[in-house]
Structure prediction request, 317 residues.
Amino acid sequence: MNLEHIKQNTELSDELVDRARHFASRSKANSTIRAYGSAWTAFVSWCRARGVEPLPAAAESVALYGADRASDSKPSTLNRYLAAIASAHRLAGQASPIGDEMVRAVMAGIRRTVGTAQRGKDPLLIGHMRAIVETLPEGRVGLRDRALLLLGFAGAFRRSELVALDVEDLRFRDEGMVVFLRRSKTDQEGRGREVAIPCGVRESTCPVQAMRRWLEHAGISSGPVFRGLTRGKVAEDRLSTQGLANAVKRAAASAGLDVENISAHSLRAGFATTAIMAGVPEHLVMRQTGHKSTTVFRRYVRDGSLFRDNAAAMVGL
Prediction:
């Protein structure tokens, strides 16, 4: 959509064109916009260093760029680079070079050469969670991190979903707690969904009790649920996604776990894997995680189902 061209050739007001531009800029998640911006900047720099035009870019330039970046980038990352290039061309009203046969052939060759397998983060299973909560410190940091970790695990939440929670999104009931997600990665239009968090069978790992204790001790009655802490004092601003990731790694390290391949995503992956290992039906696990695609969901539970209903275990070795 070339808004400048439309503006120059019609009687539309500047205000209306600006409004259309604003809505177009909000058509993707903020994280996607940032990733595309970074990828586009890298492509422009590469083009300028070689004296070629980035916009509109020739198919040959894009194909050479893909081949050059293949040495230090995974195919999934290269796909994001190409998506950013295509998006920039569309927004400028230019034909995208991504669909050119040369570009497609180079990308196919890269995938065949280096493979497309992706290794996810290691899941934090229920045994890990029990060990972690036992090592959390006393005081506000420990209370916050316990609530953060247990809720993230029980709700199979993404880190962006956790840090976006407000007290107004929580409803406590006798059976547990209902969390309302106003927006998520798979719900960019903000329809929202409710996630039930039952009370735990163990006091030490009950996410509902952990949340009650954190909110009461921190004196939080409205606004962001999870906040930064400076010398034990609760900040007004919500915890950042990086702050959440640091808390997960710190807690895992305190329990003696190898944190090299552990991240905030390990909570979500850990719940899904643990549930499948316990024999929970796939559709019930997907209801909790919010997955709509079984193909994507099964990436999470690959490890959890390796030894369940395994043919080699049934032949009597």
